[in-house]
Design a protein that fits this description.
There is one protein chain. By secondary structure, this protein is α+β, with helices and mostly antiparallel strands. Strands 1, 2, 8, 9, 10, 11, 19 and 20 form an eight-stranded mixed sheet that branches. A seven-stranded mixed sheet has the order 6-5-14-15-16-13-17. Strands 3-7-4 form a three-stranded antiparallel sheet. Helix 2 runs parallel beside helix 7. Bound molecules: flavin-adenine dinucleotide. Flavin-adenine dinucleotide (FAD) binds next to helix 1, strand 2, strand 13 and helix 7.
């Protein structure tokens, strides 16, 4: 019997597979998509994510370092540097290639298949007719596994969606810039010396100011940025609704990791780090023979993210607070540093 089946070969699933091989567990990853996978993402790897990648032995993918986060609201701006050293802007395809290469070097078996048949019993799990001791669910935001286990909990906040596109333009800031408007935020992440990624997050029910595709429409809410973006270098990709809650990160012999275990919003630039941390925590608990401890380590890895992202969404939903936020942070930059450090220390 193989030790671990992982359904989903995104960052969380591949990280879990690598962590499993590092602990001499046998592992098979099932991923429905072929080859290197692209995905709508802000593509900012925060310092703790870089640390976990290093511990997993993943070669650092090509990218551009950034010092911290800069909020821009019209003429006002506030910024804070990471105290743990820089983050890195990395194209999703570069990150996925690096994770795949490391998994392949450790002999991880990857089966290209959309899993539809799986079940669990007292002694193990069966995935597409094969037996395993444990199942790690890394099947992303929608997570059919979470749904089938009856773990879905209703969302609490209005639905938010995201779109992203890359542009051929030299990064003009050493920070990931987050531009705020009434109903949307626009993220700019440097991903190469000649290219930036632009992700826009918005409320599903809000009316964008002009017509066109969601990306083009929302971009017009940020005229100062829009005029610099002349030459797209990738197609538009979308994702969402973001908020997904799970009653628990575990059910019997199934451990949920990454977005599958619950996600709130990319507003704080988090997601990949949560995927990596929960992947390592799940595998560690299996390797130590104490999978029952996983829910506690999951809570430790995700608590600060849920708290701070929830607080920022609270401010975002109140126009008068949102309008003052950047001005307040500019006068009290320690507040922004404190929040960023708290998130990175989680
Ligand atoms: C607009 C936007 C901006 C973001 N910005 C950032 C950011 O700047 N920094 C950051 O860290 N995070 C960011 N995130 C979040 C980040 O992208 C996610 O948290 C991360 O991709 C989660 O990884 P995952 O492996 O859990 O899920 P995914 O990357 O979604 O991987 C799930 C995988 O499971 C596979 N799968 C699903 N069902 C099956 C099945 N039945 N059988 C086989 N395979 C299956 C899918 O094909 C997929 O490859 C952003 C997200 C969005 C949408």
């Amino acid at each position: 019997m193989t030790d671990v089946a992982i359904i989903g070969g995104g960052p969380a699933g591949l990280a879990a597979a690598i962590a499993a091989r590092q602990r001499n567990l046998s592992v098979t990853v099932y991923e429905s998509k072929d080859g290197v996978i692209d995905k709508a993402c802000g593509e900012g790897l925060m310092p703790p994510a870089l640390k976990v990648l290093d511990e997993l032995g993943v070669e650092q993918p090509p990218g551009v370092p950034f010092r911290g986060i800069r909020y821009v609201d019209g003429p006002h701006a506030a910024q804070a540097d990471f105290s743990m050293g820089p983050g890195v802007g990395v194209r999703r395809i570069a990150l996925h290639s690096a994770l795949r290469a490391r998994a392949a070097a450790l002999g991880v078996e990857v089966v290209q298949q959309r899993v539809s048949a799986w079940s669990q019993d007292e002694n193990g799990v069966t995935v597409e007719g094969r037996r395993f001791s444990w199942l790690v669910a890394a099947d992303g935001l929608q997570s059919p596994i979470r749904k089938r286990l009856g773990l879905n909990v209703d969302a609490r906040y209005p639905r938010r969606l995201g779109v992203r596109r890359h542009f051929n333009v030299a990064p003009w800031s050493e920070y990931v810039e987050v531009h705020w408007s009434e109903d949307a935020e626009l993220y700019i992440t440097p991903v190469s010396p000649t290219e930036i990624g632009v992700a826009i997050l918005y409320h599903a029910d809000a009316k964008p100011p002009v017509t066109g595709s969601p990306f083009e429409r929302w971009l017009q809410s940020f005229p100062a940025v829009a005029e610099r973006l002349r030459d797209p270098s990738s197609e538009i990709r979308g994702a969402g609704p973001f908020e997904r809650r799970s009653r628990a990160p575990m059910d019997g012999r199934v451990l949920l990791i990454g977005d599958a275990s619950g996600y709130l919003d990319p507003l704080t630039g988090e997601g990949i780090r949560l995927g990596l941390d929960t992947a390592v925590a799940a595998i560690e608990s299996i390797a130590n023979g104490r999978p029952d401890r996983y829910p506690r380590s999951w809570a430790k890895a995700t608590r600060m993210y849920w708290w701070l992202t929830g607080a920022l969404l609270f401010v975002r939903r109140r126009a008068w607070m949102r309008r003052r936020m950047v001005r307040v942070l500019r006068r009290a930059p320690w507040m922004m540093r404190l929040a960023i450090d708290a998130l990175n220390r989680a």
